[in-house]
Amino acid sequence: xxxxxxxxxxxxxxxxxxxxxxxxxxxxxxxxxxxxxxxxxxxxxxxxxxxxxxxxxxxxxxxxxxxxxxxxxxxxxxxxxxxxxxxxxxxxxxxxxxxxxxxxxxxxxxxxxxxxxxxxxxxxxxxxxxxxxxxxxxxxxxxxxxxxxxxxxxxxxxxxxxxxxxxxxxxxx
Length: 173
Prior knowledge:
With about 170 residues, this protein is α+β, with helices and mostly antiparallel strands.
């Protein structure tokens, strides 16, 4: 009886897994943000304000009242749009901090306003749009002058953008 009961239970465990759990697609378990106490945040660091990844440019702490909590006032710039955002939160509260990665790519070309970039391993990507403004003009100028430049790509919370360019000094010519 015990063995039969065990096999029935085993069968129900394995049939349950087929009922709508998707284990096919998944990431390595790395989250796009992590919590950090407000008092531990620093100028020059990153923080999520209004669900946007930002770089802190100004920070001040104020003590409030007799039994109040210290409040942290932050002024930050959106790392992708450059828009100024502000937030005030108690210093003991947690705020989300985005996992920001920066990587340099060598510019290969520009096709249909999409950049053709190559990383250190020789892997190429063609999914980034040429940015607007000065950086976009620098990229277009470098392509027309056939200059070899590196593009710095910043990625956070599923967004990516070229934020800077520099002349490639490690050219093998």
